[in-house]
Amino acid sequence: MENKFIVETSARHIHLTEEAVAILYGAGAVLEPKKMLSQPGQFASANEKLTIVGPKSSIQASVLGPVRKDNQVELSFTDARTLGLKDVPVRESGDVAGTPGVKLVGPAGEIELDHGVIIAKRHIHMTPEDAKNFGVEDKDVVAVSIKTAERSLIFEDVVVRVSSKFALAMHIDTDEANAACAFGEVYGTIVK
What is the pLDDT of residues 164-179, one digit of tens each? Predict the structure, then answer.
């Protein structure tokens, strides 16, 4: 099998709990799919974008569904600086304990999060079969080479995430995509 996989750019986005959806969009509101994402069951919501309010400024972000058990705001370092947030940690999705918070403003209300803001650790989603084919296991940390016309590079510290619910794809944030000129259809390979 060829050691190659799609590399997708994950722009800033928000994951919400059912309770947060009701506060921000109104009682009875649900997250409706606008566009399905590469990971099975995940979607960009058709609901209006939310405003993230930080100490210095505000920016808008899309909401991804379905709802989760914790609210989470995923930013790039550039986004965090724009908002005036300091010490935002690089974490795997879902690891939000001890992270900074922000205010989220929606069409029907607002909430003040006391935690939940992270810079997502770059990662590769794999099924167990993919992991076997690539010779890796869940939570392994690898290096990935990305070849582009202008700025090829090797990303180190890429965590492998394995689940039968995943589809093979690497996710990087917008800062990382810009650094590699990883625009359009781009592929990565694990460097052994």
Answer: 999 999 999 999 999 9
- Give the predicted TM-score (pTM) of the model: 0.94
Q: Could you tell me if 35 and 115 lie in one domain? A: yes
Whether residue 158 sits in one domain with residue 107 = no
Q: What is the structure's pLDDT at 1?
A: 44
Last residue of a domain, one of 102, 120, 138: 120
Residues 6+ apart with CB under 8 A from 148: 180, 181, 182, 183, 186
Strands 43-45, 58-65: pairing is: antiparallel
Among residues 10, 28, 11, the alpha carbon closest in space to that of 19 is found at 28
Residue 126 belongs to domain with CATH number: 2.40.40
